[in-house]
Write a structure and sequence with these properties.
alpha+beta, 33% helix
């Protein structure tokens, strides 16, 4: 279990109060014009705020199971209900039952819970996703996919705990798809933004942290060479990805830890063993824009 705790160090690197200032500086370094920067940073440009609100409303048409892509384990549901009940009692709200679980029954009639993940079928209809097959599982609390072999563009992160380093890595990869490659080609953004971490099994210290963008299907096998020496093309083998999905913006360290821990527990209950010294976080949606989907992820080789 101590291996799972090391996932804490990568939990809070996605956003903070200085996000916009650092984003602007990074985009200037990548050569974007002032107009392009303003368009990307202005939330209300071209009706984007309205589109974000409409996207949030769509969440009410899905149950939690449909949104996540799997049925959660009853033990996790009970723990969440107990947690909510304890919080309500501490806040003096009274009541014998927690509010968790009501979304499952009423989400199709009421507004969507902002923590409900965006479904993968919607995401992959809007943006290109890596090719994968869903695997049949008998357990609960996780989704299993066979991710097809493919090329990804990647870069290293020197400090897994640094939000500044995370931003720098993102904009290095963005620079590549924005024309910073041997063909000068602008490449469409794909999902997810995949962050892969490895740790020392003895000290539990993070030994490497890398960020990846998926190369679109029409460029697989012929991806242009990055101009930046710190950016590289990597061929990833086909592998199984086990994951739990979470919604909402900027998950806390505690929330990430709970999802990795429960992913491990769910797999253990289903008799599945994974190497927890390699783990990943995957972001499938634009932060702070409509519904969100991030996943805590472990990998396993194909059997």
């Amino acid at each position: 279990m101590r291996l799972l705790v090391a996932a804490l160090v990568v939990a809070a690197v996605f956003a903070d109060q200085d996000f916009l200032e650092r984003a602007r500086a990074q985009m200037e370094e990548q050569g974007l014009s002032e107009n392009e920067i303003e368009m990307m940073l202005t939330e209300e440009s071209e009706g984007e705020l309205e589109r974000a609100l409409e996207d949030l409303k769509k969440g009410s048409t899905y149950s939690w199971e449909e949104a996540k892509g799997y049925e959660d384990c009853e033990v996790f549901r009970k723990e969440m209900r107990d947690e909510w009940a304890a919080k309500k009692k501490k806040m003096g709200m009274g009541g014998k039952k927690g509010s968790y679980g009501k979304w499952d029954k009423k989400s199709k009639k009421k507004g969507a819970c902002p923590g409900k993940p965006k479904p993968m079928d919607e995401i992959c209809a809007e943006s290109e996703c890596p090719a994968f097959d869903l695997l049949n599982t008998t357990g609960c609390g996780y989704i299993a996919r066979s991710i097809k072999a493919a090329q990804w563009v990647g870069t290293d992160m020197a400090d897994a705990e640094s939000s500044k380093e995370y931003m720098s890595a993102f904009w290095r990869l963005f620079g590549y798809i924005n024309g910073g490659n041997s063909d000068g080609k602008k490449i469409p953004m794909t999902v997810p933004v995949l962050n892969v971490f490895t740790m020392d099994p003895t000290t539990y210290a993070i030994t490497s942290a890398r960020m990846f963008f998926y190369i679109p299907a029409d460029l697989q096998g012929s991806a242009p060479t990055p101009n930046d020496d710190s950016v590289y093309i990597e061929n990833m083998n086909e592998q199984i990805a086990y994951s739990r999905a979470l919604g909402g913006n900027n998950p806390s360290k505690e929330r990430w830890t709970k999802y990795f821990t429960n992913l491990y527990r769910a797999l253990e209950m289903d008799g599945i063993t994974v190497d927890t010294t390699t783990f990943a976080t995957a972001g499938f949606t634009r932060p702070y824009f409509g519904r969100q989907r991030q996943e805590a992820m472990y990998f396993a080789p194909l059997q």
